[in-house]
Specification:
The strands form 3 sheets. Strands 1, 4, 5, 6, 7, 8 and 9 form a 7-stranded mixed β-sheet that branches. The protein is built from 9 helices and 13 strands. 35% of the residues lie in helices and 22% in strands. The protein starts with a helix and ends in a 5-residue tail after the last strand. A hairpin with a 4-residue loop joins strand 2 and strand 3. By secondary structure, it is α+β, with helices and mostly antiparallel strands.
Amino acid sequence: MSITKQAVIQAQLPAKLAPQDAAEAFAPSNIALCKYWGKRDAELNLPINNSLSVSLGHLGTRTRLESAPDGTDRVYLNGVEQAQDQPFAAKLLAFVELFRAGRALPVHVHTENNIPTAAGLASSASGFAALTLALDRWLQLGLAPEVLSAFARMGSGSACRSLFEGFVEWRDGIHDDGMDSHGVPIPARWPGLQIGLVKVATGEKAVGSRAGMQRTIETAHLYQSWPLQAAADLEKLHQAIASRDFALLGQTAEQNALSMHATMIASWPPLLYWQPESVAAMQRVWQLREAGLAVYFTMDAGPNLKLLFEVQDRPAVEAAFPGLEVVAPFGD
Ligand code: DP6
């Protein structure tokens, strides 16, 4: 039995909490170039492998916490109040409760996502990162970014990378309480790096990441090779970032994503997140590469593609993918 999330968080908090009237925070969404797939501890979201992502600049979640004047918890998403028996509000309030631990501190949570709805991007990473930062400010905790990153991880693993801008590595850590498993910013910028969001489908997935990774570990023999693949890819990504080798970055990210999907497809029941349009988009990327364009893709546990390319190739990529939503994580 692992240590509980609440015990880990309470160990870092003062005995008396002093909430402000209100506090807010922003956190960016992130896209993994080396994926997190598989947990060694499901309670604390401790990963089997290290992962590496790039944060999406101004695209993400802004969360405002207000000490509730009406004495009742309330949760709003983009201005609309959410029912507390529905997963969105239930998960947020459960996370807030890890901090309150029974203390009577009713709160209103206002969450605004500016991730384009058409992008089909998960918002749980930026959502839990912004909520963690807002809790730190609301309760005047003044905790270090690494501690907050480890806390955000307990909301959703990938959220620990959204505490930081730019390239971020999430180290697996070795401690039982997981406090050494958090995001670590990589001090390198890549101006001109572009991410194109190819929307195949939005809406709820039949099997979320959490259940998907568990099924893969339990049923896919192929999963045994995943930690080795991830370790090798992480090494290559560090090299690519240090030497600004775009071909190495793109190739590694694409192969990493396809390797992760291979483990999912080899699960039982099979987990295939791709739609025919996903495969058509992959083939278009491969055709563009054969024609000499440096464009690559990555995919999470869903049907949408995220294209990787550099700013000078943006017109050609946009011509091949009309209506592409483009993000420049480091500016153009
Ligand atoms: C495929 O972070 O959503 O996007 O920790 O269970 O909340 P939980 O999972 P989550 O999984 C993300 C999986 C991924 C790869 C990645 O972002 O690294």
